[in-house]
Automatic annotation (TrEMBL):
<dbReference type="Pfam" id="PF01925">
    <property type="entry name" value="TauE"/>
</dbReference>
<keyword id="KW-0472">Membrane</keyword>
<protein>
    <recommendedName>
        <fullName>Probable membrane transporter protein</fullName>
    </recommendedName>
</protein>
<feature type="transmembrane region" description="Helical">
    <location>
        <begin position="201"/>
        <end position="217"/>
    </location>
</feature>
<feature type="transmembrane region" description="Helical">
    <location>
        <begin position="39"/>
        <end position="59"/>
    </location>
</feature>
<keyword id="KW-1003">Cell membrane</keyword>
<feature type="transmembrane region" description="Helical">
    <location>
        <begin position="132"/>
        <end position="156"/>
    </location>
</feature>
<feature type="transmembrane region" description="Helical">
    <location>
        <begin position="229"/>
        <end position="249"/>
    </location>
</feature>
<dbReference type="InterPro" id="IPR002781">
    <property type="entry name" value="TM_pro_TauE-like"/>
</dbReference>
<feature type="transmembrane region" description="Helical">
    <location>
        <begin position="94"/>
        <end position="112"/>
    </location>
</feature>
<feature type="transmembrane region" description="Helical">
    <location>
        <begin position="168"/>
        <end position="189"/>
    </location>
</feature>
<dbReference type="InterPro" id="IPR051598">
    <property type="entry name" value="TSUP/Inactive_protease-like"/>
</dbReference>
<comment type="similarity">
    <text>Belongs to the 4-toluene sulfonate uptake permease (TSUP) (TC 2.A.102) family.</text>
</comment>
<feature type="transmembrane region" description="Helical">
    <location>
        <begin position="71"/>
        <end position="88"/>
    </location>
</feature>
<keyword id="KW-0812">Transmembrane</keyword>
<keyword id="KW-1133">Transmembrane helix</keyword>
């Protein structure tokens, strides 16, 4: 496993994602997919890095008063148990890779779209706690199954529905990712999941990247151009995980 290459890429992912309150799981999954890490190691690695970086992001955004307990609690109450169930579920490679690929493609589209939303004005709307609970349960299960924290889905829902401002969305997303990732990792470990030997190195670089990114993002919104560049990486990784490159190669050659 190319530890040095992954260390650099994990640092950059943590830096970029933490600036918008995310733990970076879709970024970690993307680079691992591109490098060719085996699926059995992708999920636990992404969850561990997610926990560390989202905790830093939550601390920075919460300290800056960019958070809403009224929105977060209904989401978390249903998301945490569903993330645990998802973490206990070990999908075979031929199921896991397409699902993660679809998540990465969605993440790419969201990154393109959010580059515009970050600079837009928002007229906030109230939201039902029951609706938030339903959203939380669905995203929690998806989080545990794939190793993402769910923030890449929660953020566009909150933003595009105008339920919270961009910075508050970042604070809520960081807390949501944190509790989901902890629950998902617990479920994974209880069913025999293994952690990679190189994990301490990757945690160290993610710690630095997450701290710098979260400190920057909690004070000012992320650069829209970074979101667009990130979207390109996610799209390439998603297409690779979906096997589209292999299909095209076989079809044309």
């Amino acid at each position: 496993m190319p530890t040095a290459i992954l260390s650099v890429l994990f640092f950059l992912s943590a830096l970029l994602y933490s600036s918008v309150g995310h733990g970076g799981a879709s970024g970690y999954l993307a680079v691992m997919g591109i490098v060719g890490v085996e699926p059995a190691m992708m999920k636990p690695t992404a969850l561990c890095l997610n926990i560390l970086v989202s905790a830093i992001a939550f601390w920075r955004f919460y300290s800056g008063k960019n958070f809403s307990w009224q929105i977060f609690l209904p989401l978390a109450v249903t998301a945490v148990p569903m993330a645990f169930i998802g973490g206990m579920t070990h999908l075979p490679s031929y199921f896991y890779k397409p699902i993660v690929g679809a998540v990465l493609v969605f993440s790419a589209l969201y990154s393109f779209k959010s580059a515009k939303v970050l600079t837009a004005d928002h007229s906030l709307k109230p939201v039902s706690k029951w609706l938030l609970a339903v959203v939380g349960s669905i995203l929690g299960l998806l989080s545990g199954l794939t190793g993402v924290g769910g923030g890449v889905f929660l953020s566009p829902i909150l933003l595009f529905s105008n339920w919270a401002s961009p910075k508050v969305v970042a604070g809520i997303a960081s807390a949501f990712i944190l509790v989901n990732s902890m629950s998902g990792l617990l479920g994974l470990l209880m069913t025999g999941g293994k952690l990679p030997f190189e994990l301490p190195i990757w945690l160290a670089v993610a710690l630095v990247g997450g701290f710098v990114g979260a400190t920057y993002g909690s004070k000012r919104l992320a650069d829209p151009m970074l979101n667009k560049l990130l979207a390109v990486v996610l799209l390439i990784a998603g297409v690779k995980m979906l096997g589209i490159f292999e299909y095209m190669a076989n079809y044309f050659w």
